[in-house]
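Predict structure. Chain length: 128.
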Amino acid sequence: MDQEKSYIANDTFAKNLGINLVSADKGSSRCELTVGDEHKNGLGSVHGAVIFALADVAFAAACNSVQASIGMQADIRYLNRPLGNTLIAEADEIAGSNKIAHYQVKVSDDQGSLVAQFTGMAYRFPKK
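Prediction complete.
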């Protein structure tokens, strides 16, 4: 997990949002975010951009746990309003080759509610 920790440590955006990398290994990862007032929109709910960013960071950590990669496409579906104090993003590779990989990220809250589903496609840089 050293490469993924290094990736997250250098991601000032993720750090400023308070996203924590819990685990990453062979095409999967788990990230968490403790929800604060700074993450809420005008209606008092977690801002959709925060949910997307959490999923995107988990996607990046999972991709880079296999080899150096960059995102090519991302899509999210918001399913439920988060109710808990912590958001959890779990990313898994669902298909991949030596150049392209597809990932699914499930974002849930600490109450067990599925908040969003994210899919992403990444380009894998050639191994050196």
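Summary: The CA atoms of residues 68 and 125 lie 6 Å apart.
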